[in-house]
Amino acid sequence: TDPGAIRNFCIIAHIDHGKSTLADRMLQLTEVVDARQMRAQYLDRMDIERERGITIKSQAVRMPWTVREGERTGESAVLNMIDTPGHVDFTYEVSRSLAACEGAILLVDAAQGIEAQTLANLYLAMENDLQIIPVLNKIDLPAAQPEKYAEELAHLIGCEPEDCLKVSGKTGAGVAHLLDEVVRQLPAPKGDADAPARAMIFDSVYDIYRGVVTYIRVIDGKIEARDRIKMMSTGAVHELLEIGVISPEMLKGPALGVGEVGYLITGVKDVRQSRVGDTVTINARPAREALGGYKDPRPMVYSGLYPIDGSDYPALREALDKLKLNDAALVYEPESSAALGFGFRCGFLGLLHLEIIQERLEREFGLDLISTAPNVVYRVQIEGGDEVTVTNPSEFPAGKIASIWEPTVRATILAPNDYVGAVMELCQGRRGQLKGMDYLSSERVELRYTLPLAEIIYDFFDQLKSRTKGYASLDYEPSGEQESDLVKVDILLHGDPVDAFSAIVHKDKAYNYGVTIASKLQKLIPRQQFEVPIQAAIGSRIIARETIRAIRKDVLAKCYGGDISRKRKLLEKQKEGKKRMKMVGRVEVPQEAFIAALNTS
Ligand code: GTP
User: Fold this and answer.
1) Is 554 annotated as a binding residue?
2) Distances (CA, A) of 245 to 41, 261, 303
């Protein structure tokens, strides 16, 4: 294809603003999918794919389009629509998808206006120098206020309100005009056709039948079906088994040239061998320099995953091995805990990534799991000694510490004017630093904060929602590290530390953490034959204490004679409890107590 006829674009939108619906209309209008085949959310096929055991996602679709009206009527183009992953943990993947495009459709619900995710993605698109087409969607809705939000959008990106297109993905109104504008407004890709080939990987997906399917955007040169390709980050060389485009199914082709978007298959079995952001070149005539922007996926949040039934441990290992094939960011290694038995310490891109993995392990592999409280990665400089990376609070060095560094995020929060005070209070309570504040309109405010990642991985989003009656939206991305005054709090049961409850927290919050966990355990752990102190400690200094008082072991003592069935029930309960008791030092603790304490923290 002549690069001059190619337009590579993505749609950026806040969740539920109608991206999938609009994409469906485009597939239909361009006749890539005909009306009969059309099923709602063609691009969103995860569930169906899962049923069929196929995991291919249409990360990019090629659509032919001829300008219908206005200037340049009759001009033919090839549109490549590239999908961007939808949530905060995958900022890097989003940035690579954007880097594969020349332009972006900024889609905003005309009844909702701009939201945090819209902004965060817009900033990423601007960093990648994309041309932006502002579009208001859902104009068919009675509640739509396209004029009002056109002002907001125009103000934000520095255009005129009239430049904002108005469409309805549902009825199809304005969508053909939008495609015409994509051809007219977005630049064609530029690249050197005679240079050694360079293509950027913007996604890589494992398929059980075909191995890894890699999505690429060619920048320079040409990759042909018979080439041997080379991954520039590792130097690994692979035989090319197939190359082609997706429209909307995989169509094998002879080659991909400058500006083209498509897939390649090499037979590798693990997405780690074909990494997002890497540069593909040709082994016979390799490019000298890789394209910029490659980053190794780096886990930001760690948590211990334990099977509730200890005999599921091998099944958990197998399931993780399988998920890893399709997830370059997932890392794990075996660990054991006095409280929870054998499990794995797993690293994730963020809390949502953790939740997705945990849910897949439970749903697709039928495992019952308990996860320990998530923690971030700390860098600890020991006085006069080494620097250590701490991914598990129990590995926190014991000696004198010179400094501790924790990861931070740059958060974008959008809220109605009335809730600015509530948002600021929340952020300050989470050690946030206000970096900027802008009025998008007279009633909507954008707040930019730097926050410690550790402070937002628990319940920040829930808190934000509840304090703003659901009106605020949040997005964030990693923004480096900061030195902080952090301490490790241990929880001791009858003098023995319980590893699953150790936490690294800010000095000012240590007392609170200690009191909360200690009182929770005090309620959850049954009385023993002797008195059991529960203590929270920083090093050897005790900061909180609760006591479980001693009782006689005979649980029947509780039922003053009387009801026999109640007695039997209690006896059974006692027996039942025995089975799942863990010994922590001399104290018998039902595993359920740990699970309950971890779940509510
Ligand atoms: P995620 O994939 O969850 O991020 O959402 P999305 O942005 O892809 O939105 P989706 O296309 O799933 O649409 C969200 C909801 O808005 C659905 O209930 C759609 O039916 C509805 N919707 C989308 N476009 C329109 C539109 O133009 N008009 C109206 N009335 N509803 C629409």
Assistant:
1) no
2) 20, 7, 39
User: Is the shortest distance between the CB of 21 and ligand 1 below 6 Å?
Assistant: yes
DSSP string of 374-419, one letter each residue: PEE-EEEEETTS-EEEESSGGG---S-EEEEEEEEEEEEEEEEGGG
**How far apart are the CA of 410 and the centre of ligand 1, in A?**
28
542: tokens are 């005790």
Asked whether the CA dihedral 565, 570, 576, 579 is positive or negative, the reply is negative
Is the C-beta atom of 141 inside 6 A of ligand 1? yes
CA-to-CA distance for 72 and 9, rounded, in angstroms? 19
Which of 16, 24, 47, 137 should be mutated for ligand 1, with most atoms under 8 A from CB?
16
CB 13 within 8 A of CB 118: yes
Q: What's the length of the chain?
A: 601
* Shortest-distance atom of ligand 1 to CA 141: 30
Find out whether 137 is annotated in a ligand binding site: yes
- DSSP secondary structure string, 301-327? EEEEEEESSGGGHHHHHHHHHHHHTT-
Q: Which helix (H) or strand (E) holds 486?
A: strand 486-493
ipTM of the complex: 0.97
Element (H, E) at 214: strand 211-220
Contact by Cβ (8 Å): 266, 238: yes
pTM over 0.80: no
Distance (Å) from CA 21 to ligand 1 centroid:
5
Question: Considering only CA atoms, which residue is closest to atom 10 of ligand 1?
Answer: 18
- How far apart are the C-alpha atoms of 497 and 584, rounded to whole Å? 9
* Residue 173 CB–ligand 1 contact under 6 Å: no
Torsion of CA 119, 131, 295, 226, to 10 degrees: 140
Cα-based torsion angle of the residue sequence 451, 454, 459, 463 in order, rounded to the nearest 10 degrees: -20
| Nearest C-alpha neighbor of 280 from the set 266, 298, 270, 267 | 266
What is the CA angle 83-86-92, rounded to 5? 85
pLDDT one-digit tens code per residue, 19-78: 988 998 999 999 988 766 665 555 445 554 444 333 335 689 999 999 999 999 999 999
Tell me whether residue 106 is exposed, middle or buried, using C-beta atoms within 10 angstroms of its C-beta: 0 to 12, 13 to 18, 19 or more: buried
Q: 255-310 pLDDT, tens per residue?
A: 999 999 999 999 888 888 898 899 999 999 999 999 988 888 778 889 999 998 88
Closest-CA residue, ligand 1 atom 19, reads: 18
405-418 in b/e form (b: 16+ CB < 10 A) is bbbbbbbbbbbeee
